[in-house]
Description:
The protein has 16 helices and 7 strands. By secondary structure, the protein is an alpha+beta fold. It starts with 21 loop residues before the first helix and ends in an 18-residue tail after the last strand.
Amino acid sequence: MILIGRSKWVPPRRWKLWSLPRPALSYVLGVEAVAVVITALAVASTVSGARTGVRPTEWVAFAVLAVASVLHLESARGIERRREMAANTSPYTNLKSLWVFAGLLLLPLSLVVALVVVSYGYSWLRVYGRTIAHRKVFSASTFILASGAAAAVLRAGGLLNEPRVPTGPWTLLVVVAAATTWWLVNFALVIGAILLSSPDATARSALGDLSDQLVVVAGLGLGVAVAGLQASYPWVVPILMVTVLALHRDLLLPQFQRAAGTDVKTGLATPAYWANAVPTELARAETMRSTVGLLMLDLDRFKEINDTYGHPAGDQALRAVGESVRAEVRQGDLVARVGGDELAVLLPGATETEVLEVAERIRDRLSTLSVSVDTSTDTTAVISGVPASFGAAVYPEVAATMDQLVLAADNALLTAKRDGRNRIVAARPNPPAVTDHTDQPVGD
C-alpha cells in the first residue's frame, strides 16, 4: 500500500514515467519542455520587460492566493487522495484552477507559474505522495501551458495590464474566452497523455464525466470572482475563501460519491458499494424483464507475488489487474474488489454468451499482463502474467435472488479452481425437482 504523504523519496531515474510507451514519453517530455520555455520567457519578461519587476500589490496578491491554495488543498486532503487513486483512464479534476486563474487575472505570468509550482509542490508533499512526482510535474506543466495560452488571449483582447478583471461587456467576453482557452488547452493536453499512455483506453472513457469538467468550469468562474474582489475589495477575499471551502463538498459531490465507493488500492468499487448495486440491478432487470450477468474472478497464486516481491508490489500488481479488467468490460458494467485478490463484475443486460465473451477477454489479457513493480529490496521487477479463474452466472437463468446469484458464481469459480485454474466455468441452472411417485398408494 502506498502511504501517501509519508512515502519515501523516489529518485527520478526510477519514476514510472520511463516505463511509458515511447510516444507517450515523448509527448509528456515535450509538454514539460514547452512549459520550461514558457516559464523562462515569463521570467525574462518580468525582469527585463517594459514593466521591470513585480509591484508590491502583486506580491501581496500572490501571497494571498498561495496561502488560499494551500489551505484549500489541506482542507480537502483526504478526499483528494482517494480521488487521485481512483483516477484511471479519465482526467483527474480538481479546484486548483480557481486560484491559478485568479492569479492569471491579477499577476504577471511569472508569478502565475510560481503559484502553480507552490500548489503542486504542496500537493506532492502532503496530498498525493512522493511516489507519483512525475505525474504532478506533468500536471503542473499543463497548467503552465494553459495559463500561457489564456494570457495570450487576454493580451489579444486588449487586457494588457494587471489586474485584468472584467469591467464591461467586452472585457467580460475576453475573460470568458481566456477561461475557455485555459480549460480547452489543459483538457486537451491531459486527454492526449491518457490516450498515448493507455492504448486500450477509448476516447469516451478518456473524456470522463461531464460533472468532472463542470467542477473545473466552476473553479474558473470562482477564480474570476476572487480576482475581482482582490482587485477592488481585498478584505472581502477571506470571506469568499471561507465560502469556497464550505462549498467544496457540494461542488465535488459526484466525485465524493464515487470516491466513497472506491477501493483505495485498486480504484475499483468497494464491497459495500457493489453489494448495494447488485439488488438494484436485479430489481431493474425484473421490471424490464432483462438479465444481469455476474463474473467472480480470483487471481491464481497471487499470494506468491506478495511472498516473493512484498505486499507493496502485490498492491501495484493488483491495481494493474483492476485497470486491465476495467479496460475489457462494457461501458456501464461495474467492477468491484470484493476480497483480497477477488474481483466481481456486474454486467446489466448481459446474456450468458456475452458474459463468457467478456470473461475470455479478461482472462486473455491477464494471462499476458506485464507489470513493473517495486520490490521489498528496493529493486524493480517485472511480473509476467497474472492468471485468474472465473465463475459466471446469469440472472434469472440460474438464480432468482442476489444471494443465489453470488452463490452460483462462487460455486462455478471454485469448480474452475479445482479443474486446474486459469479457466472459466459457467453456472448451470438447477434441474427441476422430480417427485418420486413409486411409493404413493394407488387410489380406489
